[in-house]
Amino acid sequence: MNEETGAQAPARNISGFLLIAVPSVVAMVLLILAVPYYAGASARITSLYTNLADPADHALTAEVDGYALDEHHNLAAAKLDLSKVVKTQASFDNQLGEITFPPAPDPHVDLLIAADQKRIKLFKLQMQATTLRKLRAFDARDEAANAAVEEQVRIIRQDLGLPAASGALY
Amino acid sequence: MSQKGTIQGHYPYQDPSYAAGPYQDVGYADDDYQEAFYPEYEDQGQLELKTKRSSVDAWMAQPSTTLPRFKRRTIALFFLRLPAFLPWFFIMRGWYSLNAKDVLTLAEADVLGTGGEFTFLIAVSITPLITLTGSRWFAPLRRWYGIFFALIGISDATTAAITTSFDGGVFGRLAGHTFLVTGFLIVLIAGPVLLTANTPAQRRLGTYWKKIQKLTYIVWGMIVLHLALLDGFHPFDGPQGDGDPVFHQRFYQIVAISVPLVILRLPPVRRWITDKRAAGQQWKVWCTIAPMAALYLLAFAFIMNEEIFTGLQVMTLNPPAN
Q1: Number of domains composing chain A
Q2: Whether residue A69 is found in the same domain as residue A20
Q3: Contact B272 A28 (CB under 8 A)
Q4: Residue B48's pLDDT band (boundaries 50, 70, 90)?
């Protein structure tokens, strides 16, 4: 290395060093911030779940109340209520499947979706009833299907640190 | 790229004896060490000279102890080349089943798009890795992953043109949204780069070859733009995932990967690194670059996570619902 090159070297080197060091400091800050962010993942998953469950519960409450009234005197309206219930439940299941849950609740999510699909099938069968009596005859089977869903919802909510849901809600 | 006062002034490969061999090859547009021909074309006499250049290169140039017929470098490169097939391996069942369960409609872009992204990023990572380590035994991976990036991109565009659900026919499926236009342009620009990514084309095109290969930088910018338009500051698919949406955000990922790769191409940075290496202070380079390297690896891990996770969904014909 000649003298001229040697004299220029410090100035040259400091710019090279700074061009790496400054973004590295930024990267270090980002990595430090990433640690608490990563630690908050479970809270965000809980939030993703409640963001799906709350509107679904709200809609289901209205739809189930409507069905409870209509199943005694209005077959067409009762069937419409049931179809709304089916739509809400199917939409909830589709979106639930997109969330990657932690290992504890994950298998129960699959079981919940499976139980829900069974219930949806039952409701679709119920919607084919031609009289109010035949429609109401499904109620006992509906209760059993609800219980299967409720059991999985109870475990999932417990694993996510959420309070238990009331009735056939998520 | 052979300017006076740049990194090459510090690099021992500039010895004319390295460059005068009968199989001299010119490097890629982003090759800082174009005077050094590619290892595939060296003969025994040149090998002896080249073994001086890096202890790792010298070690890799020796025959393997378990498979003496092959050099260590050949074996290592064989395994390092395999991940390039991953996107096609994952998508194969979707193609073979002719889009059963809409698996290609729902997830082909996640598998082939992400596959094209990671192959491109590996290709453009090779030159900075040479700068950082001083070793070049892995230099052939640059061409390999560059070629696979273009081929995967072409297969992505073809599959998307047939199977995706955007309105407007084939044209709509290829260019019906701004992010699709940028993706389509990436494939178009990659075409000439792919066609000239071979040694006969290098020799025939002379200085024009470098200019064509420099289109790689336009492709790079277009990929960043494509992902910015696709994801913006929120993941494309909305309320889903594993509670870490920022880590899965494609635009953040490519920025975290591209920034160190661009910085390591800057002449003052390359000079600083070679000066430190020459002074026996390589550890200072590693310590300085470590946070950026960690962020780079973190982003790459999540790109590969996307590739494998969605790839397995396609392989099992269990695509995401969106």
Answers
A1: 2
A2: no
A3: no
A4: very low
Shared-domain flag, residues A152 and A85: yes
Q: Kindly determine whether residue B269 and residue A19, on different chains, have CB atoms separated by under 8 Å.
A: yes
Regarding pTM above 0.80, the answer is no
Pair (A136, A60) in one structural domain: yes
Question: How many angstroms away from the CA of B134 is the closest CA of chain A?
Answer: 17
Residues of chain A predicted below pLDDT 70: 1-12, 168
ipTM (interface pTM): 0.77
Phi, psi of A6 (to 5 degrees): -65, -40
Cβ–Cβ below 8 Å for B295 and A31 = yes
B30 found inside a domain: no
**Lowest-pLDDT choice from B73-82, B198-207, B237-246, B271-280:** B237-246
Amino acid letter, residue A60: L
Residue B249: domain span: 80-315
Beta bridge partners of B63: B71
Q: How far is CA B219 from CA B46, B126, B135, B211, B224, in A?
A: 35, 16, 26, 13, 9
Is there a domain that residue A169 lies in? no
Report yes or no on A165 lying in a domain: no
Range of the domain at A16: 1-39
Do the domain assignments include residue B182?
A: yes
Structural domain count of chain B: 1
In a domain, A5, yes or no: yes
Contacts of A1 in chain B (CB under 8 A): none
pLDDT tens sequence across A26-35: 999 999 999 9
Distance of CA B256 to the CA centre of its chain: 15
User: What residues pair up with B71 in beta bridges, in sequence order?
Assistant: B63
- A166, part of any domain: no
Q: Which residues of A touch B243 (CB under 8 A)?
A: 40-45, 48, 100
Q: Does A45 touch chain B (CB under 8 A)?
A: yes
The string over B251-268, giving b where at least 16 C-beta atoms fall within 10 Å of a residue's C-beta and e elsewhere, is bbbbebbbbbbebbbebb
E strand or H helix at B279: none
Q: Is residue B85 part of a domain?
A: yes
Interface test with A, best of B6, B102, B240 (most A CBs within 10 A): B240
CB contact under 8 Å between B268 and A12, yes or no, is yes
Touching check for A44 and chain B: CB below 8 Å? Answer: yes
8 Å CB contact of B241 and A98 = yes
